[in-house]
């Protein structure tokens, strides 16, 4: 019969602590997790929260190392993710993986019927050319390009975004551009975005592109949200007039503050320029002098 050997407390204090790059805390090695691809190490709690956040937000399918300066650009393997997240979160991760695979596969597409979530296969010869696709699950025949009813000899409607819905969502073929659908795609990177509530000014988490939810027009340069003062989206921002005015006052104040700061600092910059140039010339001259013997 073996007994556990007593270990004094001063020996326990000598155990090395490892620093976590996410929370900057120091922990014993048994509370750390190493990513196998890049050997970067983080505390298990921080890495778990990082992985769960990306999966819940649907930001990444291939979860990269959280260290922005990772030399090997490593990714977490599926078995590593499965060991640290709950079962329902892992199921969502696998679902996101499968949806992304279908989205990137030119020979597969989703059935546009709202009551069917089947994956349909296109002909391998010319998958980029519009063709008739028949769903093997619900027998719906639709166009592979616009997802509307099959229209032999007729071109797809130009104002209809291609594949602008998720599996099970009703086809956008019969919807107007300003329809407040719950799920749309970013007009820049084509990532799916779901809007439950809130204002109509949207920002894609994937590419940081700002756009109007109703008409998908870009709002990247519209800091004052003038887009909602006229046109079909007038007064559809989702905020009161007072809050919009307060937002514009804040934006104008920020730009005015930067302008005033630049105006005040410009004379000092002009006065300091000769001294900076003089110091640079002296340093350059000093580098060219021979070393003393």
UniProtKB/TrEMBL annotation:
This chain belongs to which protein, by name?
Answer: RBR-type E3 ubiquitin transferase
Q: How does it sit in the membrane?
A: Single-pass membrane protein
Q: Does the keyword Ribonucleoprotein apply?
A: no
Domain (RING-type) spans 16-237, 20-66
Transmembrane segments annotated in the record for this chain: 251-277
Task: Give the record's keywords alphabetically.
Answer: Membrane, Metal-binding, Repeat, Transferase, Transmembrane, Transmembrane helix, Ubl conjugation pathway, Zinc, Zinc-finger
**Gene Ontology CC entries for this record:** cytoplasm; organelle membrane
Q: Which GO terms describe its molecular function?
A: ubiquitin protein ligase activity; zinc ion binding
Q: Which family does it belong to?
A: Belongs to the RBR family. RNF144 subfamily.
Q: In which pathway does it act?
A: Protein modification; protein ubiquitination
**Chief location category:** membrane
The lineage's top-level taxon is Eukaryota
